[in-house]
Amino acid sequence: MTERREGYFLYHSIGQYPDKERQLGVAMEELASVWSASDDQQWSYLLGKRGEFIDLWRELIGAPAGSTTTCENVTQGVHMLMAALPADTLRGRKVLVAADCFPSNHFLLTRLQERLGFKLQTVRARQGAHWVSDEDMIAEWDRDVALTLITWVSSTSSHRVDLANLVAHGREMGSLIGVDITQASGLLPFSVDSPQIDFAVSTSLKWMCGTPGAGMLYVNPQLISDCRPELCGWFSQDNPFNWDIDTFEYAPDIRRFDNGTPAILPAAATVPALRWHAGIDRDALVRHNRLLGGILIEAADNLGLTLLTPRKEKARGGSLMFETGSTERAKAILASLNHAGFSADSRGSTLRLSPGVQTSEDATRELVEVLEKSFHAVNKGSGRH
Prior knowledge:
Protein name: Aminotransferase class V-fold PLP-dependent enzyme
Helix content: 40-55%
CATH superfamily of the largest domain: Type I PLP-dependent aspartate aminotransferase-like (Major domain)
Radius of gyration: 22 Å
Strand content: 5-15%
CATH class of the largest domain: Alpha Beta
Structural class: alpha/beta
Number of strands: 11
GO molecular function: kynureninase activity; pyridoxal phosphate binding; transaminase activity
Largest sheet: 7 strands, mixed
GO cellular component, one term: cytoplasm
Organism: Hoeflea prorocentri
Distance between the termini: 30 Å
Shape: globular
CATH architecture of the largest domain: 3-Layer(aba) Sandwich
Number of domains: 2
Keywords: Aminotransferase, Hydrolase, Pyridine nucleotide biosynthesis, Pyridoxal phosphate, Transferase
């Protein structure tokens, strides 16, 4: 298989940008040099990189200083927040989530309900629907819901919720509102104040093009003072160098969610990607994605593939999911695409394509040609006409 950078359709997974390999290599070489030096200057450098990572994320989501920190991943970030809430916030009430959330979050919530004393209420998609509708979320979102974790864009269908409408309803119900922004952060514009939410979580993968382990947790400053993170340590203090074991106090801002020595390597490795992202024309990136997405939708319609993603641009993220009919058919089609040098994937019988900054229009049209040939070959081999 020949690697084709312009044929990269995996922005729902890892994410690539021009010159990524070189920039990441330079950053890691610099870090290795600093960390290996026979002096005591390592920590100022490393903490500076972590601070830059946090500041670049804050700028992206419009978050104020002292409201954003690092975590390993989205699941950990959700746990950090929920375990830090006052005991009476969740106990005896409900936590609401859509069934098409990232499964890892649902696994976590299922276990947390036992210890934190809430009832997990999962909103299911209607029969035949490919995503959980906003209307059904609202229908099950009553005043007994203490907290709702909203999935901004679903990883299974690329359905994008009407966040303003959901948050407005949640405010009427008096609920805490968190948003998992992973599947569209770095592509679609997002602000923690428009509408105002209580917390947000994301990784730095996918459209952000960063590295694993570089998660982000935002907590509304108005909520931070009520939180008492159970996982705490020397970095949870206003002065991390306080060694008096009898005078521990939480830092007044998001730093209270830190604990022991932070894992800085993922943040430092992701800084080059965040710098690149901060300098691009984001409106142009969205237009490019929509152009290529339109080409793929038209091709799928011509082939009779079922689109599992909303057709309206405002109702979807940047990914497109297509139903192929069976897991075997999806694997066969994907094998043809991979053999031609295109990077895509499948999940069960679903083919997933996510064009981004590195994906070209010419490569997209070439992928369509390969897709058509593969689709017809698979149909012929299965006896379908």
